[in-house]
Write a structure and sequence with these properties.
The chain has about 325 residues and is of the alpha/beta class. The chain folds into 3 domains: about 80 residues, Arc Repressor Mutant, subunit A (Orthogonal Bundle); about 100 residues, D-Maltodextrin-Binding Protein, domain 2, CATH 3.40.190.10; about 100 residues, D-Maltodextrin-Binding Protein, domain 2 (3-Layer(aba) Sandwich), CATH 3.40.190. It is about 40% helix and about 25% strand. Strand 1 and strand 2 form a beta hairpin. Helix 2 crosses helix 3 and helix 2 packs across helix 5. The N and C termini lie far apart (about 65 Å). This is Transcriptional regulator. One of its GO terms (molecular function) is DNA-binding transcription factor activity. InterPro entries: LysR_HTH_N (IPR000847), LysR_subst-bd (IPR005119), WH-like_DNA-bd_sf (IPR036388), WH_DNA-bd_sf (IPR036390).
Length: about 325
């Protein structure tokens, strides 16, 4: 018999006997069919037939009759060890998912853009946990497309994303606008200005996020609105890396303001076109929502207009 056919046979037998394992464990503990049946709340003949079916499915004897009781065979002892491990793992899994849904100590799987990690999201979580200190978070930083993919796969409950997705399976609420700046080296010809039109940088070399990132889609649209296709020298995955490239004189970039100033760069306000991105909260409304997810979603939606610029007096 080949490995693949053997594996398929084992899987088939496992699927057949899985519902019987709790009953087998009860018989093994009691070493008596009648007492085990009473403990399980089922008729004794039903349990006897179940044990016979289990032995038939496995293909080896698991129980030896000893007068009025039963004893495990050597094969039965071997199987029991694995059954007890499986049942213990199942119980742990049930404990975890029940706790995850609890209002007091539940868990929220929350995704957000890389650029929101240093300040915005920590401040958001700090404010939320003032009233809900026991709720835990699984945090995921990724591109917009990856977050939406993981949310649809059931790995994320909510995500902060930009640009706002337009899809029939998603609920999306705009929360805040984030200005994008033309970032130039400190010795750049435009560095002494405070405001520029994006078209004034049409002949410059740009450093951009990689295709597929939400920020790249937004900046590409801004370039098109300004009437030019940028010459892209470098593409990256982190805005901090792009700022470093600008500081090194390797290009200019369209980026949100940094949480802390970066030496060697100057941020210029773009007057035309209006350069910003709208950040919003997305979730799947058709999916059942646990109490902690609902609480956090309602909290985040209540921060509209204060997500990026919170007012400490109102927190």
């Amino acid at each position: 018999m080949s490995y693949d056919s053997r594996s398929a046979e084992v899987s088939e037998v496992s699927a057949a006997i899985a519902p019987l394992l709790t009953q087998f464990a009860a018989v093994a503990r009691e070493e008596h069919i009648t007492r085990a049946a009473a403990g399980l709340g089922i008729p004794q003949p039903t349990l006897s037939r179940t044990m016979a079916r289990l032995e038939a499915d496995v293909g080896v004897p698991l129980l030896a009759r000893t007068g009025r009781g039963v004893a495990l065979t050597r094969q039965g002892h071997t199987l029991l060890g694995y059954v007890e491990q499986a049942l213990a793992l199942l119980e742990r899994g049930l404990d975890e998912v029940i706790e995850d849904a609890g209002e007091a100590r539940g868990k929220v799987a929350f995704g957000f853009l890389h650029t929101m990690g240093p300040e915005a999201v920590p401040g958001l979580l700090r404010a939320f946990r003032v009233d809900h200190p026991g709720i835990r978070f699984q945090l995921v930083q990724a591109s917009a497309s990856v977050m939406l993919e993981r949310m649809r796969a059931g790995e994320l409950d909510l995500c902060l994303t930009a640009p706002l997705p337009d899809a029939p399976d998603l609920a999306v609420r705009a929360l805040d606008d984030q200005r994008l700046y033309l970032v130039v080296p400190a010795d750049h010809r435009l560095a002494g200005r405070r405001r520029v039109r994006l078209a004034e940088a049409a002949e410059d070399v740009f450093v951009c996020m990689e295709p597929g990132y939400g920020l790249r889609r937004i900046t590409d649209a801004l370039f098109a609105e300004a009437g030019f296709v940028p010459k892209v020298a470098f593409e990256g995955e982190e805005t901090d890396t792009l700022r470093g490239l600008v500081a090194a004189g390797l290009g200019v970039a369209l980026l949100p303001a940094p949480d802390t100033p970066r030496p060697g760069t100057v941020d210029l306000t773009v007057t035309a076109p209006r350069a910003f991105r709208t950040i919003g909260l997305a979730w799947i409304p058709s999916r059942p929502e646990t109490a902690p997810v609902r609480l956090f979603r309602e909290f985040v939606l209540g921060r509209r207009g204060r997500l990026l610029h919170p007012d400490p007096a109102n927190d």
